[in-house]
């Protein structure tokens, strides 16, 4: 028997309240029928005795207090899951928007999911190659990891996210690879950029896209990452795919959570965000990983724009506590035309030490990564000294570090948006740049490693390829 409640006790913004309800649960879905027969959908966000408050996805415009009819479905929100999801585009609530019709569900699953039990977790091993030297070489993405990208307004994080989608591949071939891409609060032109970019690159057939536009309801923005992660978990742990989940922009998601919290009258915390923002973000990020005895893996790369480029803002601050490192984009490098403008020193991947080196990438990878990081940190010291006493007064070794810094930024960090470098190209380039420095300065690697790979003057083949008979391309 279908039971409906006629009329509402309150209506405010996107919220409606009903009095005298029975057997209604938190997070339960409801169907609201308007006078003209139009149907809208909402979710229970508060239950207090016989009073229930619902958030209406499509907004409350046109809803009558006297005549609206509400039917509770008795279950939380779920989405249809199928292998057919690959290559399809959905809105933030998991409804197809690509004009190809509904998918035939192999099963339906609650979007709220749960964090992976630490006892059942398998330690992440092996890496995911992005084709981007600054990531693959110095902050390697490990399969099953959560590695956010910290950016700023107006920087090229969208282009970087699109390049990762086009070029990403698992380090070994023991399973199929898929990407779940979730965009939250993006403009129409940005959404079209992603769709067209993936389509033209031929990557769309391995991508499941969830698109929430800036004009869409905020409640849908809160649902988007949950729908995306539910799809990723199905592809990974049921179908055996290695899934990379890219979510942009998590700042839009957090601002939707803040607006949602404010509409409920909750007491705000830092910067107006609710006090439960940490646990809310953790409920998303902790759905990444690998499960013992189950095929596949879920790897997360959330992208967030730091308000005012402030890395201590609650969103990047709380994200950094939960995730295993970060990739930080630098505005000064972006303004100098460096792409991707990745700042090497504050960027790190806490799990890369267990997924690179012998048996994973290349034996010398850990040494090259450590030495590049150490040498580039000394570049900053040399630049600071040069700004005080002048470059001409520097010692010869400090001048070498300045030369190394310029070459490192121009040739290693900087690369074309369509340049997909292999790990061998990245590490070989790192060795050529390190040859700018004398052997005595390579203090983060063994003498055996130096003797095996160091070639004095090798950097001349990339700085002046014409004099060395080269063609100027990486080889």
TrEMBL record:
UniProt domain ATPase F1/V1/A1 complex alpha/beta subunit N-terminal: residue ranges: 11-68
The keyword Transport is annotated on this UniProt entry: yes
Record CDD domains: ATP-synt_V_A-type_beta_C, ATP-synt_V_A-type_beta_N, V_A-ATPase_B
Domain ATPase F1/V1/A1 complex alpha/beta subunit nucleotide-binding: 131-349
Superkingdom, natural source: Bacteria
Family annotation (InterPro entries): ATP-synt_VA_C (IPR055190), ATPase_F1/V1/A1_a/bsu_N (IPR004100), ATPase_F1/V1/A1_a/bsu_nucl-bd (IPR000194), P-loop_NTPase (IPR027417), V-ATPase_su_B/beta (IPR022879)
SUPFAM superfamilies in alphabetical order: P-loop containing nucleoside triphosphate hydrolases (SSF52540)
Family named by the database record: Belongs to the ATPase alpha/beta chains family.
Protein name from the UniProt record: V-type ATP synthase beta chain
Species this chain originates from: Pseudoflavonifractor intestinihominis
Lineage: Bacteria, Bacillati, Bacillota, Clostridia, Eubacteriales
Protein's gene: atpB
């Amino acid at each position: 028997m279908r039971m409906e409640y006629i009329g509402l006790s309150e209506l405010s913004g996107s919220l409606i309240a009903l009095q005298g309800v029975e057997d209604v649960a938190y997070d339960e879905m409801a169907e609201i029928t308007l006078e003209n027969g139009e149907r809208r959908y909402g979710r229970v966000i508060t239950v207090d005795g016989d009073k229930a408050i619902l958030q209406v996805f499509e907004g409350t415009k046109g809803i009558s207090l006297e005549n609206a009819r509400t039917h509770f479905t008795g279950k939380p929100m779920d989405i249809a899951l199928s292998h057919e999801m690959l290559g399809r585009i959905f809105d933030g609530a998991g409804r197809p928007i690509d004009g190809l019709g509904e998918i035939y569900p192999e099963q339906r699953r609650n979007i709220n999911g749960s964090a992976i039990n630490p006892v059942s977790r398998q330690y992440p091993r092996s890496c995911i190659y992005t084709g981007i030297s600054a990531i693959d070489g110095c902050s390697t993405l490990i399969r099953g990891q959560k590695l956010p990208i910290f950016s700023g307004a107006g920087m090229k994080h969208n282009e970087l996210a699109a390049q990762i989608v086009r070029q990403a591949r698992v380090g070994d071939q023991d399973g199929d690879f898929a990407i779940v891409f979730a965009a939250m609060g993006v403009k129409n032109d940005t959404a079209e950029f992603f769709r067209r970019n993936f389509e033209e690159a031929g990557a769309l057939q391995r991508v499941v896209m969830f698109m929430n536009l800036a004009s869409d309801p905020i409640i849908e923005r809160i649902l988007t990452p949950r729908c995306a992660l539910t799809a990723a978990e199905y592809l990974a742990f049921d179908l055996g795919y290695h899934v990379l989940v890219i979510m942009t922009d998590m700042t839009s998601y957090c601002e939707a959570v803040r607006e949602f919290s404010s509409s409920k009258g909750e007491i705000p915390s830092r910067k107006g965000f609710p006090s439960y923002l940490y646990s809310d973000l953790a409920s998303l990020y902790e759905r990444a990983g690998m499960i013992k005895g189950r095929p596949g893996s879920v790897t997360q790369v959330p992208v967030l724009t730091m308000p005012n480029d402030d890395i201590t803002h609650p969103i990047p601050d709380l994200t950094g506590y939960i995730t295993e490192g970060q990739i930080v984009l630098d505005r000064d490098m972006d303004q100098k035309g460096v792409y991707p403008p990745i700042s090497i020193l504050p960027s790190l991947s806490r799990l890369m030490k267990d997924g690179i080196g012998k048996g994973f990438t290349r034996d010398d990878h850990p040494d090259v990564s450590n030495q590049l990081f150490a040498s580039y940190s000394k570049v900053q010291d040399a630049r600071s000294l040069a700004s005080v006493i002048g470059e001409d007064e520097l010692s010869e070794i400090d001048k070498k570090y300045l030369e190394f810094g310029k070459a490192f930024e121009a040739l290693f960090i900087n690369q074309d948006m369509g340049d997909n470098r292999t790990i061998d190209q990245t590490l070989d380039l790192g060795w050529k740049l390190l040859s700018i420095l004398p052997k005595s300065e390579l203090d983060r690697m063994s003498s055996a490693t130096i003797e095996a790979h160091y070639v004095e003057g090798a950097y001349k083949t990339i700085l002046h390829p014409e004099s060395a008979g080269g063609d100027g391309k990486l080889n």
